[in-house]
Amino acid sequence: METLNGKNILVVGATGGIGSSVTKLLASSGAKLFLAGRNVAKLQQVATENNIPVERILALDISQPDAVNELKEKYFQQLASIDILVNAAGIGIIKPMDTLTEADFLKTLHYNLYAPFLLVKAFLPAMKEVKKGLIINIPGMLGKVPMAGAAAYSASKYGLTGMMQSIREELKRTDIRITNLFLGGVDSSFWDTIELKVQREKMVQAEEAAKAIWFLCQQPTSGVVSEMVLQPFNHQAI
Fold first, then answer.
1. Is the per-residue pLDDT at 193 higher than 70?
2. Residues 6 or more apart in contact with residue 48 via CB below 8 angstroms
3. 236 located within any domain
4. Total of domains in the chain
5. Are 220 and 201 within 8 A, CB to CB?
6. What is d(CA 209, CA 225) in angstroms, rounded to the nearest whole number?
7. What are phi and psi of 237, to 5 degrees?
8. Whole-number pLDDT of residue 146
9. 16, 45 in Cβ contact below 8 A?
10. From the DSSP assignment, how many helices (H) and strands (E) are in the chain?
């Protein structure tokens, strides 16, 4: 396994349950972190708890090109290179087709597919310069297996899976690795606004999902974990 001590890591979505938990694990392993997220107060709290300088955090809407360009600029003002990009950001809109609106559909694609595209466009060139790096995205199980009521969400996550697999093919002559983490049923704020009866006590805990990302960040340079699937042992839908 690779050591994380001294590695330069960008965590996007650091204010969420998974993002804040993985930030704690990475910081305790000696990584140099830059954090991005939407919630300013939460971002500052996570940074303070993990002794991350305020110069290495940025609150932004990652679905906006200008915001991602600002993130790129401020990141490289603080850190000379990027070893790992962890994208733990995204939104969840779970509705049947009868109530799913065009605005819902486009918003889901904007945050779950277009935003990761912007991030890769911004930070992949720096990895290509040195021909090494690691990009971790979280398509989730709905990026592999469809579910009723998840037309928009699955479309965005299937798209993310396909996009990253295609980019992986472009990078075969480098040591830049792509990992897709397929999480199923994580007990996080994702479910707070979703009108679907689920048993959250049977879901994977956010802290355990974060440990999976922490593990993936340490994968050996001689190989790559192209995919990891982590899902609850028992059924969560009621």
1. no
2. none
3. no
4. 1
5. no
6. 16
7. -80, 140
8. 83
9. no
10. 7, 9
CATH number at residue 29: 3.40.50.720
Closest of 183, 79, 188 to residue 136, by C-alpha: 183
> Would 94 be classed as within a structural domain?
yes
HSE, CB side, 13 Å, CA atoms: give it for residue 119. Answer: 32
Amino acid at position 19, single letter: G
Task: Please tell me what DSSP assigns to residue 215.
Answer: H
Taking the CA atoms of residue 111, residue 113, residue 117 and residue 119 in that order, the dihedral angle to the nearest 10 degrees is 40
Q: Which amino acid is at 47?
A: A
CA distance 53 to 45: 11
Rounded CA separation 3/218 (Å): 6
Collapsing DSSP to helix, strand or coil, 227 comes out as strand
Cα–Cα distance, 100 to 206 (Å, whole number): 27
Q: Is it the case that residue 201 has pLDDT exceeding 70?
A: no
Coil, strand, or helix at residue 224?
Answer: coil
β partners of residue 179: 136
Is the torsion defined by CA of 12, 56, 168, 115 positive or negative?
positive
Residue with tokens 């990302």: 213
Domain of 61 in residue numbering reads as 8-230
Query: What are the tens digits of pLDDT across the range 113-130?
Result: 999 999 999 999 999 999
Residue 91 placed within a domain: yes
**Inside any domain, residue 141:** yes
pTM tops 0.90? yes
DSSP annotation of 234 reads S
Q: Cα–Cα distance between 113 and 56 in angstroms, integer?
A: 25
